[in-house]
C-alpha cells in the first residue's frame, strides 16, 4: 500500500504525528467522558432543584391539609380566625410550589411521566373544588358543618400528597444512575418525606383528640399505630441511607433533633391513649396551645433536617461538578503538554538528526563529485552517533583528499611511464637497427677477409640485435596494452579457440599437442582480439613447457568455482595442461615481465618471457584476475575471470 | 586512387636524417634490384626546398622518415599533400613506429604507403622488394597483393 518513497523526515514526522494523535485521541476521549459526566452532573443538579420543588409542594400541601383539617374541626370562631392566615399562606405556597414543579416537569418531557402529570393535575383540580367547600363550611357554626367533608378533605389532600410523591419518584428515577451518593440522598429525602407525611397525619389526629379531649376510638387507635409504625420504619431506613449516602456527620445533629422532637411529643400523650383510666378519664396532660407549640417545633425540626440534607446534597453535587471540571482541566493541560512535547521532540530530531544527515549526504555528494572539502558541521561536537558519524565523515573527507592527490599523481606518473616506454622503445630501435645493419654489411662485404672467430662474433652481434628488437617490441606492445582502449563486443570464445587451433595448426601437430573443450564455452562481452591473444599465450605456454609424449590442453568454464581459500568465485575460465608444472614459489614471479623460469640455451623453444605478463595485463584490463594451481610433473591449471559484468549467460550456446 | 607507376628513369627522393638508415635503405634497393637515381635530403626543410626549387625535376616517388628533428615527417607530408603540384607524387612513409595512431595520422594526411622499418635487414629487403613490385613499372603485379 505504501509504495511511496518516504524520507527520514517524513517517517519521523509521521511517527511523531501518529503518537501525538494517539495521545490526543486518548486524552480527548477521557475529556469527552469527563464532559459527558459534567453534563450529567449538571442535569442532576437541575433535577435536584426540581425534586426539591416537588418535595416542597408535598410539604406545603401537607401543611394546608393539617390546617384545613384543624379549622374544619375548630369549635370556636376565634380559633378559626387564628388559623386563617396560616391556611391562606399555606395554600399559596402549596400552589406556587406545585405550579413551578409541574411547569419544570413539562419542560423535561421525560417518558412515562405524562400520565402521572395528568393524574396529578386532576387531583389538584378536585383539591381546588374541595377548598371552596371548606371555605363555605368554616363560615358555618361547628354543628352545622358537614362531617363528611372532614373525611373527604383528608382523603383527597392525602391522595394529592401521595400523587406528588409518586410524581417525584417517577422523575427522580431517571437520574438514579449518575451518582450513587446523590441517589442515596434522594432516597433519604423520599423517606424523610414519608416521615413528615405520616407524622403529620399523626399530629392532625392527635391534635383533634386533644382539642376534643377525647380518647381515640378503636379504629383511630389502630390508625395511629399504623402511622406510627410507618414513621418508625422511616426513621430506621433514613438512618441507614444517611449513613451510606455520606450525609453524616453534617446532618446527624438535625436528624437526632427531629427524631427526639417526634418521640418527645409522642411520649407525652401516649399514656392517655393506652391507659386512659390512670389519667382520670380522657384528660390530656397538656394544653392545646402547648400541643400546638410542640407540634410546630417538631415540624420545624423536620424542616431543619430536610434543609440540612438538601444543603448536603447541593454541596455533594457541587463538589462533583468541580471534580469533573478539574478533570477536564487536567486532561486539556495534558493534551497541550503532549503536543508541546511532540513538537519539542520533532525539533530536536530535525536539528540533531535530519540536518546533520542532510549535510553529510551533501558532503558525500561533493566528495564523489570531487569538490573540495567543506567546513566541519556543528553536529561533529554532538556526543551521539550522529556526532561520531559526522566526525568519521570528516576524517573520510580528508582521506579522500589524500587519495585524490595520490590518484592524480599516479595518473600522471602512469602517463609518463607509458610515454617513456613508447619513446624509449622507438629511440632504442634506431641505433639497434644501425648496429644490426653494420654488422650485417660487414659480414656481407668482408666475409672472406675476416677470420672465422670474427665472423662468428659478427653473427652473434646480428643475432643479439635481432633478439634485442624482440624485447623492445614486447616492451612497446606491453605499454600499448595498458594505454589503448578495449574494443568491447560480444565474442564467442569457442570460435576464438578454433581460430587459435587453426593458426597454431603446425605448431601443435609438430609437438603432438591436442586442445580439448569438454563443454561448450560461453559468449562473453570482451575485447575479442586481446582475449584471443590471451588464450593463445596460455595455449602456447602449455605446449612449450611440456615434455610429455602426448601434450593435452583442456579449456573450460565454470559458473561457480570454490577457490582454495573456500571463496566462491563466479564465471571462471581455466586452461589446464599436463606439462612440467610450476613450483609454488614462482606462482607470483611468472607474471613479471621478461621473467623466464629456464634458460633458453638448452631449449629449442625461445621466448622473451612476456606471454604471461600480457595475459595478466589483458585480464586486468577486463577487470578480472588470474591465479593458478600446479603440481610438478603433472601439470598446471591457470584460472581466470574476465570481470563479472562481461559475462552474458543469454548468449551462451 | 589511380596508381601512377614510377618509371626506371625517375628519381627516388629519400628524406632521412639517419645516415645509417639511408645506407641500409640504399643497400636494400640494390638487393631488390632497383637501380633508380636516389637523391638524399636530411630533413623536412631540405625536402621542401628541394621539391619547390624552380628547376627541379620532380622525383617519381618520395620515401619519408617520420621522426626527424625540426620539420618532422608528418608536417613535411602535410606540406607535400597540400601542394597542388607535389601532391601527385606518391609518398611512402618509412618509419620505426608501428603505432596505430602514427599509421592512421599518416594515411589521413595523404600518405600512399606506410612501411615499418624492421631492425632485421632481411626484413628491409623484403619490404623494399614489395615496394618495388607495387610502385615500379617494371614489375608484373599479381592482383590483390598490394596495400601491404
**How would you sum up the global shape of chain B?**
globular
Count the strands of chain A?
A: 7
CATH class identity of chain B = Alpha Beta
Give me the secondary-structure category of chain A.
Answer: alpha+beta
Question: How would you portray this structure in words?
Answer:
The complex is a heterodimer of chains A (653) and B (148). Chain A has three domains: 8-335, no CATH class; 373-483, Helix Hairpins; 485-646, Histidine kinase-like ATPase, C-terminal domain (Heat Shock Protein 90). Helix content of chain A is 69%, strand content 7%. The two termini of chain A are 43 Å apart. Chain A is rod-shaped and about 195 Å long. In chain A, the strands form two sheets. Chain A has a five-stranded mixed beta sheet. In chain A, α1 runs parallel beside α5 (180-212). Chain A is of the alpha+beta class. Chain A is built from 14 helices and seven strands. By secondary structure, chain B is an alpha/beta fold. Chain B has one domain: Rossmann fold (3-Layer(aba) Sandwich), CATH 3.40.50. Helices cover 39% and strands 14% of the residues of chain B. A five-stranded parallel beta sheet of chain B has the order 2-1-3-4-5. In chain B, α4 (100-109) links the parallel β4 and β5. In chain B, α1 packs across α5 (121-135) and α2 packs parallel to α3. At the A-B interface, α9 and α10 of A face α1 of B.
Amino acid at each position: 500500500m505504501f509504495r511511496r518513497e518516504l524520507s527520514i523526515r517524513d517517517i519521523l514526522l509521521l511517527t511523531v504525528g501518529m503518537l501525538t494523535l494517539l495521545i490526543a485521541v486518548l486524552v480527548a476521549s477521557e475529556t469527552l467522558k469527563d464532559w459527558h459526566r459534567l453534563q450529567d452532573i449538571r442535569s442532576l443538579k437541575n433535577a435536584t432543584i426540581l425534586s426539591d420543588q416537588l418535595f416542597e409542594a408535598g410539604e406545603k400541601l401537607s401543611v394546608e391539609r393539617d390546617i384545613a383539617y384543624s379549622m374544619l374541626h375548630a369549635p370556636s370562631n376565634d380559633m378559626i380566625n387564628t388559623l386563617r392566615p396560616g391556611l391562606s399562606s399555606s395554600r399559596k405556597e402549596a400552589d406556587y410550589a406545585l405550579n413551578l414543579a409541574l411547569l419544570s416537569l413539562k419542560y423535561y418531557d421525560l417518558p412515562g411521566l405524562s400520565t402521572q402529570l395528568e393524574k396529578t393535575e386532576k387531583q389538584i383540580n378536585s383539591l381546588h373544588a374541595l377548598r371552596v367547600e371548606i371555605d363555605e363550611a368554616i363560615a358555618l357554626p361547628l354543628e352545622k358543618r358537614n362531617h363528611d367533608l372532614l373525611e373527604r378533605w383528608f382523603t383527597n389532600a392525602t391522595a394529592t400528597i401521595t400523587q406528588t410523591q409518586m410524581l417525584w419518584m417517577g422523575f427522580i428515577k431517571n437520574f438514579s444512575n449518575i451518582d450513587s451518593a446523590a441517589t442515596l440522598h434522594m432516597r433519604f429525602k423520599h423517606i424523610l418525606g414519608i416521615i413528615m407525611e405520616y407524622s403529620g397525619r399523626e399530629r392532625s389526629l392527635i391534635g383533634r383528640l386533644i382539642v376534643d379531649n377525647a380518647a381515640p376510638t378503636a379504629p383511630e387507635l389502630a390508625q395511629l399505630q399504623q402511622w406510627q409504625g410507618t414513621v418508625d420504619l422511616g426513621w430506621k431506613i433514613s438512618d441507614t441511607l444517611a449513613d451510606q449516602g455520606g450525609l453524616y456527620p453534617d446532618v446527624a445533629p438535625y436528624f437526632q433533633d427531629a427524631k427526639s422532637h417526634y418521640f418527645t411529643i409522642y411520649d407525652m400523650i401516649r399514656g392517655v391513649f393506652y391507659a386512659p383510666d390512670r389519667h382520670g378519664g380522657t384528660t390530656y396532660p397538656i394544653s392545646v396551645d402547648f400541643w400546638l407549640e410542640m407540634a410546630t417545633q417538631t415540624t420545624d425540626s423536620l424542616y431543619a433536617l430536610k434543609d440540612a440534607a438538601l444543603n448536603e446534597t447541593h454541596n455533594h453535587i457541587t463538589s462533583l461538578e468541580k471534580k469533573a471540571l478539574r478533570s477536564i482541566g487536567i486532561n486539556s493541560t495534558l493534551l497541550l503538554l503532549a503536543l508541546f512535547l511532540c513538537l519539542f521532540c520533532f525539533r530536536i530530531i530535525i536539528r540533531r538528526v535530519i540536518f546533520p544527515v542532510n549535510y553529510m549526504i551533501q558532503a558525500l555528494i561533493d566528495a564523489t563529485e570531487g569538490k573540495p572539502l567543506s567546513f566541519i558541521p556543528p553536529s561533529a561536537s554532538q556526543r551521539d552517533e550522529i556526532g561520531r558519524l559526522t566526525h568519521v565523515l570528516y576524517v573520510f573527507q580528508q582521506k579522500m583528499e589524500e587519495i585524490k592527490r595520490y590518484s592524480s599523481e599516479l595518473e600522471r606518473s602512469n602517463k609518463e611511464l607509458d610515454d617513456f616506454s613508447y619513446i624509449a622503445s622507438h629511440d632504442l630501435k634506431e641505433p639497434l637497427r644501425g648496429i644490426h645493419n653494420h654488422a650485417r654489411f660487414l659480414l656481407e662485404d668482408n666475409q672472406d677477409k675476416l677470420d672465422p672467430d670474427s665472423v662468428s662474433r659478427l653473427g652473434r652481434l646480428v643475432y643479439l640485435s635481432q633478439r634485442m628488437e624482440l624485447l623492445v617490441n614486447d616492451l612497446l606492445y606491453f605499454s600499448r596494452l595498458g594505454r589503448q582502449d578495449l574494443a568491447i563486443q560480444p565474442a564467442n570464445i569457442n570460435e576464438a579457440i578454433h581460430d587459435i587451433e587453426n593458426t597454431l595448426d603446425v605448431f601443435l601437430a609438430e609437438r603432438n599437442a591436442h586442445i580439448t573443450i569438454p563443454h561448450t564455452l560461453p559468449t562473453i562481452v570482451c575485447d575479442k582480439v586481446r582475449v584471443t591473444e590471451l588464450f593463445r599465450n596460455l595455449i602456447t605456454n602449455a605446449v612449450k613447457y611440456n615434455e610429455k609424449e602426448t601434450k593435452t590442453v583442456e579449456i573450460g568454464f565454470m559458473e561457480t568455482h570454490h577457490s582454495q581459500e573456500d571463496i566462491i568465485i563466479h564465471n571462471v575460465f581455466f586452461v589446464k595442461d599436463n606439462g612440467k608444472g610450476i613450483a609454488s614459489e614462482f606462482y607470483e614471479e611468472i607474471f613479471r615481465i621478461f621473467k623466464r623460469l629456464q634458460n633458453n640455451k638448452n631449449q629449442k623453444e625461445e621466448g622473451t618471457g612476456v606471454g604471461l605478463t600480457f595475459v595478466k595485463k589483458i585480464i586486468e584490463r577486463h577487470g578480472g584476475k588470474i591465479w593458478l594451481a600446479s603440481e610438478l610433473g603433472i601439470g598446471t591449471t591457470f584460472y581466470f575471470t574476465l570481470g563479472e559484468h562481461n559475462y552474458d549467460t543469454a548468449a551462451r550456446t | 586512387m589511380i596508381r601512377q607507376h614510377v618509371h626506371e628513369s625517375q628519381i627516388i627522393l629519400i628524406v632521412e636524417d639517419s645516415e645509417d638508415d639511408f645506407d641500409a635503405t640504399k643497400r636494400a634497393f640494390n638487393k631488390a634490384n632497383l637501380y633508380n637515381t636516389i637523391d638524399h635530403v636530411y630533413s623536412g626543410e631540405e625536402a621542401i626546398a628541394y621539391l619547390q626549387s624552380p628547376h627541379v625535376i620532380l622525383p617519381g616517388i618520395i620515401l619519408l622518415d617520420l621522426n626527424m628533428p625540426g620539420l618532422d615527417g608528418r608536417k613535411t607530408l602535410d606540406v607535400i599533400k597540400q601542394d597542388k603540384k607535389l601532391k601527385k607524387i606518391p609518398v611512402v612513409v618509412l618509419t620505426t613506429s608501428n603505432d596505430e595512431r602514427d599509421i592512421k595520422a599518416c594515411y589521413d594526411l595523404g600518405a600512399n604507403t606506410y612501411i615499418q622499418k624492421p631492425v632485421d635487414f632481411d626484413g628491409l629487403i623484403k619490404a623494399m622488394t614489395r615496394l618495388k613490385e607495387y610502385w615500379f613499372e617494371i614489375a608484373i603485379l599479381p592482383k590483390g597483393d598490394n596495400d601491404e
